[in-house]
Design brief:
mainly alpha; DNA polymerase, domain 1; hpI Integrase, Chain A; 3-stranded antiparallel sheet; 6 strands
């Protein structure tokens, strides 16, 4: 039998109730029907009580649910996921507030809470972007006035971690410690300069051996086609195809690397622990540092800063110019005037990771 004022969506129970002529919808964040019934009854009573204070007393969680319903299917999957994670992270700071009670002081408190939890300035900015989207929707609906996240985001300076260029032997150590499929992902990042998310979703249909190109989906769901070095092309062509999967970089059973960032973190800890035990020195680096290494080596090899910017998918060449500091004056002058040559990164023979 259908549950009164309840419905399921993606396995989670939602409240749907019409109170005083207005429909209310919000997630109850549970898959258990008994818990959902209890939360339903409590929320209906809260909504009825809130009616005494007028429309502006709409709770933050209700505004989030209304916003989510309104933008359903309009955001790219990665963006929707990122917004969802951010809204979960800020919920403890905003849960007890009405939508019109979220002011500059509330946002400042949210920022401080996130900082104490270890969130970086970049992460906090992403969280505020998600909050801002809900507040803008609420303002459009007439539930509040103004958006206090705007000034906070402008004044929240993003600290950029210094770029670390991994040493070739250290990269080979990481690859040797990894499973062959994950090692292939690491080497591909080094040879192509692609982001992790771009590589874990790329398929064989997007690789052209004849043209020596790879088509990837970058930030903002933007598609671009990059030209591969001979070494990168040969390496990708040498990889085995997983049965039943079109992904180039996947596990041996064909499943994708759904948690590639976490997987690399576990791998790094294992490599460093093993090196410490063996009294060897191996540098710590991030997966994204392989992209930095590709960029610097590409410029040193003769690629122009403008061609590199397009290759990396940067929206502005000014972003790419951060790599010029790693060049000699002669290399920098050549990079600013260079040709579209793709250097053969890593001149050693292609290895099967």
């Amino acid at each position: 039998m259908p549950e009164a004022n309840l419905y399921r969506r993606a396995g989670v129970w939602w409240l749907r109730a019409t109170i005083n002529g207005r429909e209310h919808r919000e997630t109850l964040r549970t898959s258990d029907v008994k818990t959902a019934r209890r939360l339903r009854d409590r929320r209906i009573e809260e909504i009825k009580q809130a009616r005494h204070f007028g429309e502006s007393k709409r709770p933050w969680l209700e505004a989030v649910a209304a916003w989510a319903e309104q933008i359903d299917g309009q955001l790219a999957p990665k963006t929707a996921k990122r917004y969802g994670v951010s809204l979960q992270q800020v919920e403890p700071s905003l849960r007890g507030l009405a939508i019109n009670e979220i002011d500059g002081r509330a946002i400042a408190g949210l920022i401080e809470t996130r900082r104490k939890a270890g969130a970086t300035p970049a992460t906090v900015r992403r969280d505020l972007t998600a909050v801002s989207a809900v507040l803008e929707y609420a303002e459009f609906r007439g539930w509040r006035e103004g958006n206090p996240t705007l000034s906070k985001r402008r004044n929240l300076k993003e600290r950029r971690d210094p770029i670390v260029l991994p040493e070739h032997p250290d990269i080979e150590t990481y690859i040797a410690y990894a499973t062959p499929p994950f090692g292939a992902l690491i080497r591909a990042a080094w040879l192509t300069g692609c982001r992790q998310d771009e590589l874990v979703t790329v398929t064989w249909r997007q690789f052209s051996h004849n043209r020596g190109t790879l088509e990837v989906i970058g930030k903002g769901n933007k598609r671009r086609t990059i030209t591969l070095s001979d070494h990168a092309k040969a390496f990708i062509a040498s990889l085995p195809r997983a049965l039943g999967s079109d992904l180039i970089f996947c596990k041996q059973d064909g499943d994708g690397f759904a948690q590639a960032a976490s997987d690399f973190g576990h791998l790094r800890r294992g490599v460093l622990a093993k090196a410490k035990k063996e009294k060897r020195t191996v540098s710590r680096f991030r997966f994204h540092d392989l992209r930095h290494l590709f960029a610097v080596e590409a410029l040193r090899g003769g690629m122009s800063i403008y061609d590199l910017s397009k290759h990396l998918g940067h929206t502005s060449v000014r972003t790419t110019e951060i790599y010029l500091e790693f060049l000699t004056p002669e290399e920098e002058a050549r990079a600013k005037q260079g040709s579209a040559q793709i250097p053969a990164q890593g001149t050693r023979p292609a290895q099967r990771a």
